[in-house]
Amino acid sequence: MKEAQDILYGALRKWRLLKSTEPLLVALALGGSAYLLLSSFWVAVLAFLISLSVGLWFVRPWKFTLAQICSRVDETIPTMEHSTGLILENENQLPLLSKIQRARASETLKNHQRDIRIEHALVPTAGVSLFVVLLAWLIHASGVFQLDRNTKNIPEADVVTFQPLDSTDLEILPPKIRSQEIRISYPNYTQKLDTYTTQMNLRVLEGSRISWNIVFDQSVNGVQLQMGADSLQMDGTKDSFSKSLVADYANFYAIKFEDSLGNSYVSDLFALETYKDEPPVIEMEGLPQFSPFDFEGPQKLAFTTQLKDDFGLADVAIIATVSKGSGESVKFREERLDFDTKLSLGTKRQDFSKTLNLRELKMEPGDELYFYVEAIDNKQPRPNISRTETFFSVIKDTVTNQFAVEGTLGADLMPDYFRSQRQLIIDTEKLIAEKPVIETKEFNFRSNELGFDQKALRIKYGEFMGDESEGGPVVVTEVEAATEDPLAEYTHDHDGSNEHNLVAEEHEDHDHEDHGNEDDAEDPLEAYVHNHEDPEASTLFAQSLKSKLKQAMAEMWDAELYLRLFQPEKSLPYQYKALKLIQEIKNSARIYVHRIGFDPPPIKEDKRLTGDLKEIGNYSKNETLEKEDEYENMRKAVARLEVLLDSDSKITKTDQDLFNKAGNELARKAIEEPGKYLETLQTVKWLSESENIDTQQMKNALQGLYRALPKKQVLPNSSGCYQNELNNLFIESLNVE
After folding, report:
1. What is the pLDDT of residue 331?
2. Inter-axis angle of helices 543-564 and 568-588, nearest 10
3. Using CA atoms, how far apart are residues 646 and 60, in angstroms rounded to an integer?
4. Whole-prediction pTM value?
5. Confidence of residue 735 (pLDDT cuts 50, 70, 90)
6. Where, by residue number, does the polypeptide cross the bilayer (predicted)?
7. Pairing mode, if any, of strands 230-233 and 220-227?
């Protein structure tokens, strides 16, 4: 029984789906036709949504019920004996006869479920929809619909005027443009609607497709679109013509055609300007160029970024590089980080925020972070990419400071084992953190080991102070010499046995009673030798650093004491004090060498200040540089126009070729300043194509070419005459001109 009920429910779902497909097909057909006829994506979407909503409301597939399905089954399957409705009834509420009939109907439905026929009009609807789409495509291909949309009254400023190129005067009315339309289709990524205009001077986005549709009031033989030096044949017959191309760069164009009698006409020049898709603009707020952080403090860097683009953003990210180590062992790790704010694809302006946690980047003291923000727009096929300047962040290393020397070269000669105090602090902090989870025996063992490491480090520093024993500084005590040495028989007296070979000691006349002055006599070699008998003088550091190093060693003593007593918490303050003092010592103990520069040769004293230049020669080089003239044809055209104006000669084919080349050279400047040179370029264009040119047009072309030609650079030269006020007065008095 359950299977029979599922058959009925499936038939209901199928019926609703088929009835919903009918308005969907109609909506697709209307939306596609709107796009083909109007060439507007949003208009097509609007037509699709409206037609789909109206169709669904008219059909109302959600109104179909199981009762209607049962009636349809009873009509299409006679063996059901109009008992399909019993399948949906509750068996406990039916009498015995109805139960028997219900079971028979269920079995019959299972055997004839393929015979169920649902009423729908899907096939006719699909056929009509396909016909509508094909009809719209034919209208779109013929271009009739677009031309019908044109305004019959072209604005006066947009009217295209033509000039005949043949000298023969004809008593006929030349063809004119009855309707004109230019369709600008922007690239798909811009999401801009197609625009239509009757103005021939265009300024479009680079990569846009431009379609010209022109209708004449008479039949013409052919129409050409002269784009720069190229002539493109327009498609069409009789009076309607069209042409489409992609604008990749700025240019000039004109329309040329022949009437039914073979006479040629050309229009004025029109400017085709293109502008580029600008890259995204990134503005950073609240972020300094360099951000240092302490190791113990918070290591978070928060900032906001504002992004803008003319046609929409496609992606934005933070490109971060973490630098570890120094010198040849430096390592870099690059990561691509996302902002905390999610990017809305296609948005033209959006604010982003980010909080960089240096701990999450696994940075340690001394590590550096370099990052910048990169934004990509949705331009196709090659997007524009913008990036900010690089920002720096560093975690201060309490042991090693990176220094820079201006004007000299610096050398850091401190040994590497100065860094171990920092490791002792890290291990001590780790031991304190793990105290609750480890046994007391292990805790005491590790604390004692740290105390031993602290002792080893202190001994190393003691060597720099002149200590030669592990027990601390050398204590010098004066003991009276014994009269007899008990070890004299077992040792060699190197100093005493060689007394007869020593040089006699010279004594100066002085007061022998003052013995104290002899001890205080200054030793001339004291500044150049190490007195190892005196620990205070045997240090490798300057006198100003001795006190700091002594204090650091004292702090190490206290740190070691508490580590030996299994109290690392009390040892930490002393370790930090020792670390700070060591850092100050290291920053002070730097050795600088002189900058390596130019070492001039020695001067010969016998030649100095003599003024002898016999052995000194002057360097001279003669070279002729030929620069290609970018306006050679324009200069030739100026010369030829002057000849034509002075004589009654006519423009020949050679002259037209010359004017055509001169126009191409002038077009380079006209693209940059169309308002200044466009009129001259138009006149030169007519000279290159027409035989019927009057004198005024040639004069205008000559003046324009003179203004366009760059001025020659005046070279310095010597004047052949000398004039002053006295000479001028003398000449005037003689009446000599």
Report:
1. 85
2. 160
3. 88
4. 0.49
5. low
6. 34-59, 121-139
7. antiparallel
Q: In 3-state terms, what secondary structure has residue 433?
A: helix
Question: Does residue 224 contact residue 255 with C-beta atoms inside 8 Å?
Answer: yes
CB atoms within 10 A of CB 501: 6
Q: What is the pLDDT of residues 455-464, one digit of tens each?
A: 888 888 887 7
Here the tokens at position 403 are 């220094």
Lowest average pLDDT, out of 51-60, 77-86, 299-308, 316-325, goes to: 77-86
The answer to whether residues 86 and 102 touch, using CB atoms and an 8 Å cutoff, is yes
Could you tell me which of 585, 522, 528 has the C-alpha nearest to residue 552? 585
d(CA 725, CA 254): 60
How many Å apart are CA 225 and CA 219, to the nearest integer?
17
CA–CA–CA angle 63, 64, 69 (5° rounding): 165
User: What pLDDT sits at residue 475?
Assistant: 38
Q: Angle at Cα 398 formed by Cα 432 and Cα 595, nearest 5°?
A: 160
DSSP 3-state percent helix, strand, coil across the chain (nearest 5) = 40, 20, 40
The set of residues, in sequence order, having a beta carbon less than 8 Å from that of 225 and lying 6+ positions away, is 212, 231, 232, 233, 234, 243, 253, 255
Estimate to the nearest angstrom the gap between the alpha carbon of 687 and the chain centroid: 48
Q: Are the C-beta atoms of residues 174 and 162 closer than 8 Å to each other?
A: yes
Say which residue, 274 or 478, is predicted with more confidence: 274
Tell me the C-alpha distance between 116 and 109, whole Å. 9
- Using the predicted structure, report yes or no on whether residue 30 has a pLDDT greater than 50: yes
β-strand pairing of 202-205 with 270-275: parallel
Output the six-digit token pair for 420: 């171990």
Q: Which residue has the higher pLDDT, 155 or 705?
A: 705
Contact partners, residue 676, CB within 8 Å, separation at least 6 = 670
Place of tokens 């102070």: 465
End-to-end Cα spacing for the chain = 133
SS3 category, 114: helix
The b/e string for 507-517 (b: 16+ C-beta within 10 A; e otherwise) is eeeeeeeeeee
Residues 6+ apart with CB under 8 A from 556: 454, 457, 458, 461, 574, 575, 578
Q: What is the Cα–Cα distance from 640 to 18, expressed in whole angstroms?
A: 80
Residues 580-591, mean pLDDT to the nearest whole number: 73
Strands (E), 152-297: 162-164, 177-185, 195-197, 202-205, 208-216, 220-227, 230-233, 235-237, 240-247, 251-259, 264-267, 270-275, 281-285, 290-293
pLDDT tens for each residue of 216-270: 888 888 899 988 778 899 998 888 899 999 998 888 899 998 888 888 888 888 8
Question: What does the alpha-carbon distance between residue 23 and residue 59 come to, in Å, rounded to a whole number?
Answer: 8
Tokens of residue 697, six digits = 């047009």
The pLDDT assigned to 115 comes to: 64
Q: What angle do CA 75, 80, 85 make, to 5 degrees?
A: 85
Residue among 272, 486, 281 at smallest CA distance from 387 = 281
Please say whether the beta carbons of 368 and 323 come within 8 A: yes
